[in-house]
Amino acid sequence: MRRLLSILMILFAAVTLSYGQATSVNGGSIQGSITDPSGATVPDATVTILAVDTGVTKTVTTDKAGFYSVGPLNPGSYTVTIAGAGFEKLSVTTVVRTGTATPGNFKLTLGSSAETVEVNAGALQVNTEQIGVSGVVTREQIDALPVNGRNILDVAQLQPGVVLQSGQTFDPTKAGYSAISVSGVGGRTTRILLDGQDITDETVGTTIYNVPSGAIQEFQLNRSTQDVSGEVTSTGQVLVATQSGTNKFHGNAFYNFQDARAGAADISGTTAPFQRNQFGGYIGGPIIKDKLFFFGGAERILQHELDAALGASPVFSSILQQFPFVPAPFTDNFSTARLDYNGPKGIHIFARGVYSVNSDFATFGLAPYQVYENRDNVPGIVGGADFTTGRFTHSFRGGWEKFHNLLEDGTAALGNSIYNPSSATLGQVTLIGSLNAGPNYLAPQGTFQTDKQFRYDGSYTRGAHTFKFGFDMNRLASGGFAAFFGASLYTDISATPGNLVAGGNPANPLDYIAQLYAIGNGNGLFSERPGFGLPGGLDPSWRFGAYVADTWKATPSLTLTGGLRWSVDTDRANQDLPTPLCSSVATAQQFSGCTGNTPLFDQYQQGLGVQTRQPYANFGPQAGFNFSPGDHKTSFRGGIGIFYESSVFNNTGNSRTASVQSNFPAFNNGLAFAGASSITLPGFGVVTKAPDGTPVSTILNEPIGLAAPEVNAIKAEYQAAVKGVAGVNPSYIGTTGLYANSIYAGPYKSPYSIQFNGGIQREILKGVVLSADYVHNATLKIPISQDVNHVGAARTLNVQAGQNAIANTTAAFGCSGGASAAAINCALAQTNNTVHPGQGAQITDFASNGLDSGTNFLGSAAASYAGLTPATGAAFAGTNPNVGQGKFILPIGRSGYDALQVVLQQQKSHPAPGIMSSNLQVSYSLSRVVSGNAGTNPADQFFAGAQAFDNDDPNRYLGRTPLDHTNELSFGGSLGIKYGLNLAMIGHFYSASAASLVLDTTAGNTGQIFQTDVDGDGTIGDLVPGTIPGSYEHGVKGAGLNRLINNYNATSAGSFTPAGQAVVAAGLFTPGQLRAANGVQQAIASAPNNPLNNAALRTFDLSANYPIRLGRFHEGMSLVPGVAIYNVFNMSNYGFIPGIVSDATGQLINVGNAAGGVPGGYFNGPSDQATLNQARTTRNSGTFDQGGPRTTEFQLKFNF
Question: On the chain, which terminus has fewer CB atoms closer than 10 Å, C or N?
């Protein structure tokens, strides 16, 4: 902290000694040069800026270089009047946009100052000042375009390289929210500011509340080389400005209605009931003319929805038929109020408050029946002041907001409308696997976040230089609890014949023996620090930022910009915690070389055993130019800069518990496996019988219907003893098998991106502007979880442990001779066994006894945790077999984005006969997104815990991600037709997303290092040899899939992986024996001639309305009935398909075709319509409906 204070003092001194310019984070500015007819600059000209709506004026004088700058200014229409001795007075009508420096380069005409020349600069102008790439969505577009649900983020897709995402893809607490991906990176960390207040969810990402379009004046989206004053983000930033009052009373009231029975399409004849009522209103006006204004309003969404019950195994079709729909009600309430005051000496003060309440029922991928209710409550307030003193401008912002999320079981509220296995006899039961039903295991949980914000932006203009400087700080706190598996009994069900009890009914899930039960301790804290009224769970942080920059108007046509920004987020990687020492390791898990004050993490890799580094020197320089020769209707721009990224609090909390030695009510759970005779419950002990005396060995061999009451009784006894008790942390790494599961260690660095852009912008015609930019974003130091102990790697074979595993296997098959070749041959030939009758010992049998990775055989823990030694544990236990898997979060990942982005904008009045007004924007991007992230969502690169495709060399495989759409075309426009009719449209057409082709591990992880670990790094389910991430839909598509499969089957199938080569080289197996045990790479099943693919996104929305003018009652009054049709042509869209290519064993049930074989949903599986329908895009949580079936909305709006 002392180092931080030193840096702050240096930066404060630099700020106070620097000169700068301020453009507020929710306003814009007007700046430029005044010249005479010859092009010479005009000094001492008087420039008066008049806000048309509020009557506020600001007056400045051009300097000796003829330059002036006025700002910050609220977005809106302005009149710029320039007067100079010997020149005619010039009056220009122009528009100020959010976050934009409006061009103010004007040429005066010689003549009498009593004459005034009036010019309309137009709503669209070439940006002749700024170096970055950004776009503004205007109030006109927001009002006119058809936006399903009125969520402001939906409109952001008009910008190139922007893709709308459902917030539920990030976290269950974001059900009912949307997010936007910018430049191929998931929308988790896209920064969103409302009136200068950061409303980004710092815990899991996207926004803390939905911002409806009715409250918004306009917004700017920065896509590359954002202004040096921008908040911390390495991807995109959205600057949103709310509406304010004017000198005229104005407002509206609206009602929008949708119903599945009115103009909506179904899927394969199934119509899911749905109805949405959305209504509200806004009003603004003067309290004191030209001085004090107000604006406020509210709106509400009341949505009744029944989702089709999909996703269960076909054996439970009778349940699906009995409960074909799952209720998913959604409500969203938003209200806001704002005051603006124009005080003496040009000061502008504003205050704005919001209150949002949101509730949604969702499953977070656990469809059909495992429902939870997600509720949010968010108050917030922000205020600011903008004023000028001489050539200085100042902008202050301060705000506070609190986000309170509560996630509860939703099945109780839905009652008998859905299937629920829970009962008074069984207790609360949650099924997961072949059928997801019962209380959602994620509930209950609560999330809190507070953000106290302050920022200052200042400026000073001197000569041709516009200097700007600023400082911002946030006091952030995140906290809460998540009592997973706590309220209900988590029950893993696999509906296979082997798990069905004798005489059981296959259609009754309670007649199956559960594979495991997860028994939660009832606690839900992941941090020992108290906060928000809880005894733990708090993660606090400070965020500081400061910047200085100079914009030099070198000539009236050339602007040069240079700046430097510093930023820091404290304690996001648990930097407050000391590194664990060997003295903290439990006695039974201690080993030679790890004693006393020796750092424990050094036992995984030297250098990790130090306190995690807090990066303070995050300095991001930037520079660029904007050249607009001649008439300033063409500009050439280029910029380059470094931009740092933050880390969400979920990363902090998820990685913290394992490093904390303090006593607190920490979350943990025990696992009860089928066939076991005991259950280990952390913090409680080993349980061998239920409270009524029934042996655990009996319970765990019974069907769920008999076992659940007994396991629930054990759970109740467990929670009675440990729930709410501040006991020893049961998740501490030194007492839980020395397994480092995504923990921060010493060498932490903040991720950052190197961005550069270059492009041209040209006014083709009056009101028509074309932009084309090349955008590059290379992100470095991305956090990747790397197993530095390399558990499972082929080079870590422990021959003695391998011999022990082989001997145990041959003995289990009744063969003598231990690990000898004769004993192995005996086991391979022993077809008369109870494990898999008719078949001798397989590689899975040897692996189940230890000839496997420690990740699988030991559950990633050290052998000592199971009472074993390195010689009796896993054969591939890592570089140091005395510890478990060493997955540490290290700053080693990288990604890249390259794109050509083109935008055509048109906005004109009377553009053609019969057309009163038109507004059109067409955006296109030709892009490539690459990453080495092998997570379930490879585009979500800033969520720690993600792994690479190659653990030994994390950046070996860099390829395309699911957010990579090579071609993205978006357009939106509106027409005002003479005599009243208004038409509007919006469309999005994206090429297919990329997918990685990986080998099949769905039969289970046991022994997979011999079948799918083709590079020998210890991770399984590798990329198909010859491919890189994202190969499918790019290097491989259509008939090329079978060519790849045929080549693999000819060259790789039947051969040994590096693990297989290792056991053969060690003499543990002969090549023939390993092949007989099926310890080889498996053949891949052939694909259909027309295989499944990730389809392109296609959606087109259309709206029409007819204003009925009521001017005879009041000026500007109208009643506007209308209709909007979303996905008007009902174009089918499909969800992302995982890139697994199924092997040729045909062991899994095919959802699309009950005859069996390769399962549905695989690229080489069936591609019939039934399979396709399983992936058909349907309505998502909240108002998110991107690519869903056609819906029709009936609208009525009253304007005044």
Answer: N
